[in-house]
Amino acid sequence: MGNIGMKGQASIEFILVLLLAILFITTIIQPNVAEASDSIKDVSGIAKLRVATGKIANAIEYVSVSGSGTKRSVRIVVPEGGEITCVNDAVSDIHKVSFSYTAKTPTCDGSTDCNSRTENIGTDFTCNPATIPEGIYLAVASKVGNTVSVNFEG
After folding, report:
1. Is 107 exposed, middle or buried (0-12, 13-18, 19+ CB in 10 A)?
2. Cβ(107)–Cβ(114) below 8 Å
């Protein structure tokens, strides 16, 4: 009879250890995995936006120094939480393409350069539309006469 009691005690101890392991996994490991996953999505989103604004700026600059009738097409991705904005103010001589990104987790550690960036462009241009929300687009930069324009299709 004593032997049966020892087997029962071992079973209860095993169940308690198993419950403690499950409790540890659900309270410590799982939330960290979710936060890490969100951080990876944020880094990926910011990287996609940096590449997209760079591609747009390069296309505008290439077309602006080329002859009339020149076109340059680039495929860009604006991820969820991101937005690209074209600013062209000829009066104050501000010509730029910038992006902003709403992060799922705090990513900047106080830095202001983390979730936004601006590509200054040395030429006058127009964008249609001026604000590009999330999605996949074909950005077509073209020059007609001395006018440079960028149209986003997608």
Report:
1. middle
2. yes
CA nearest 71: which of 148, 125, 138, 141? 141
| Cα dihedral across residues 41, 46, 47, 53: positive or negative | positive
The pLDDT mean for the chain works out to: 85
pLDDT, one tens digit per residue, over 60-105 is: 999 999 999 999 999 999 999 899 999 888 777 788 998 988 887 7
**Residue 96 or 32, more confident:** 96
Q: Peptide bond before 31: cis, by omega within 30 degrees of 0?
A: no
Structural tokens at position 145: 């006469």
Question: Considering the entire predicted model, what is its pTM?
Answer: 0.75
The rounded distance, in Å, linking the Cα atoms of 111 and 91 is 31
Structure tokens at 122: 């040395």
> What SS3 class is residue 108?
coil
The two structure tokens encoding residue 91: 């009066």
